[in-house]
Amino acid sequence: MNAPFVPPAATIREADLSDPRDSAAIEAFLADASDSTPFHLPGWSRAIERGCGQRPHYLIAERGGIVAGVLPLIDIRSRVVGRSLTSVGFGVEGGILADDDITHTALEAAGWALAQRLGTPTFELRGGRVSGESWHLDDTTYLDFARDLTADHESELLAIPKKQRAEVRKAFANDLTVTVGRGDRDLAAHYRVYSESVRNLGTPIFPRALFRAILADMGERADILTVWQGERPIGSTLSLYWKGTMYPFWGGGVREARALRGNERMFYAYACHALDRGCRRLDLGRSKAGTGPAAFKKNFGYLPRPLGYWRRTLDGAAPRTVNPLDPKYARKTELWKKLPLPVANLIGPWIARGLG
Question: Are the CB atoms for 310 and 141 separated by under 8 Å?
């Protein structure tokens, strides 16, 4: 009887994300990896470093000079929530991807060893699986919402549940226009809308440099969709594209958007634009369970999928929970909502750059 084939051990090293050869080899691996996301791409890690100043450590496993697995890590430092080594920081998912179990286990061990060397209190993997009993799983905080697209714009409208579809039709009567682009006007409109949106939710805005870096480092895999009332942007989203899926990621609307059904118009525009780009699937990203954004996505016919985040700590204690919905953050959130927008935009980026 023949013994089972055991692949030779892979060599693990930290990739040089400034080296086009390393980036190309990683992208070739990701193109064939079934669970890869845009957050695994080298461009994502480079943009986070340039936009937020957080250092990436992109681990790759190689066998015979060919990439056999990846673990993109970002060393996130924050005076507000502490420090963590996260795969992948500022993204929804981005855990270990590997050709086989041996390589997967080796990358997990290498990531943990790196956390120990750096003295990072928390090691986090967003998605995937882990080995051993030292991990803490959180699969109740976040939900992801995604579905396959239909054939055309009209069928996408009909795919929206009847009650929500009526709200979209009301938006059509409000003389709203939709643009998609990657230029300075698009960036300015997005920042204007998104900063007001997150301030109204009691959340600091990310640095303006982050959004510019994402467009630069992700290239044609990113763009900005904006809903306008005349010359005023009322809703805007920066989206990512990867392997036939559109990922609307950083988006929101101003207060007036609610009465104008601007958010409904924007969500329908996602599907239409995704189809126009040749996408087959739309992933609306994560929302916290039990929140209004989660309910809004569900009303559009997107079913929730729990996201599993694995955390391991250097001291073995239960990881610190950081959730704006926690009652202990309620007063700070309410105070932030009352800040004048220029003040929130001035101090917010210094806080948010570490909220990965």
Answer: no
